[in-house]
Amino acid sequence: GEWGETINRTIYIDNDTIIHDIWGHFVLELDAQPTAGGTLSGGGIHPFSAIVPVEANPLPGWEFINWTGDIEHVHNANSSGTTVTMPASDVSLTANFAITGIPENLDLSNETIADGDTECFDALQTITVSDFTVETGGSVTLIAGESILLLAGTTVEHGGYLLARIAAREDDYCGIPRAMEITKEPVGSKGEDVVPSDLPSVVRENGFFKLYPNPTDGTFTLELTSAELEKTITVEIHSMLGNRLFRKELPAQRLHTISLESQQPGIYIIRVMKGENVGVERLIKR
């Protein structure tokens, strides 16, 4: 038939001079908001009038809310699993997710974090703390979306640990699992002595190494637990004030002994870089 003068066609000609006409195929673009909320399937290039299944799968700690965007082509915008009928144009959809299981506000009072206990409390807006004690050897992290109020009666004994901070991003809460191995970030061009902002504040286990004893009296062992060893690893030690105290490239053998005997008692961040991955661990020196 006639192609007409206003229709753009795209054709490919292979070696046998067979014409392949891909006109009539359009892009279905899927995005997650926020990106940490879940995974999506069904996007890509689809023919006109095709009924395309799409799926939004929330990650742990998140729930699906709805689809937004070109929803006139969506069968059910409130269903995480639905279909899209492709029009004669590209379609853009956003799957919206929300955090679940974290209160808006949290009051902590008459609480004691005992020796050996590690706790994390979070709230989307405000945490209010009063008559709260962290005993020697206890550890607690407070994460809020807007503010943290430490009122009278909040006590941290010598050798105890309390970190209060504002969430840096949507998945930065203790109720949401976070990967222990993160994409490697280059060291600042001027070698700034700063701790990366996305270091987890409390790490209970690590994907490819472990430290012991923890707490330590000065010397500790770094053991690589991954079966695949790179030629070298890089180890950094940071103070909780953000100063980089140690950086050294080491052979990727299974065991390394590292000393903190020249440092004061306190909390230290151990950062290990192996290939394209980075792991972090919190170490206590008594």
Oligomer: single chain
- Main structural class: mainly beta
Question: What value does the Rg take, in angstroms?
Answer: 26 Å
Shape: flat
N-to-C span:
84 Å
Mean pLDDT: 78
Strand arrangement across the biggest beta sheet: 17-24-23-20-21
What portion of the residues fall into strands of 2 or more residues? over 45%
Percent helix among the residues? Answer: under 10%
Biggest sheet: strands, sense, closure? Answer: 5 strands, antiparallel
Taken in chain order, the helices and strands follow as EEEEEEEEEEEEEEEEEEEEEEEE
Number of strands: 24
Q: Helix segment count?
A: 0
Spans of at least 5 consecutive residues whose pLDDT stays below 50 are 1-7, 17-22, 178-205
Topology:
Layout: E1 11-13, E2 19-21, E3 25-33, E4 38-41, E5 44-47, E6 51-58, E7 62-69, E8 81-85, E9 91-99, E10 105-113, E11 118-123, E12 126-134, E13 139-144, E14 147-150, E15 154-156, E16 161-166, E17 181-183, E18 209-212, E19 219-224, E20 232-239, E21 244-251, E22 255-259, E23 266-274, E24 277-285
Parallel strand pairs: 3-9, 10-12, 11-13, 12-14, 12-15, 13-16
Antiparallel strand pairs: 1-2, 3-5, 4-6, 6-8, 7-9, 17-24, 18-19, 19-22, 20-21, 20-23, 23-24
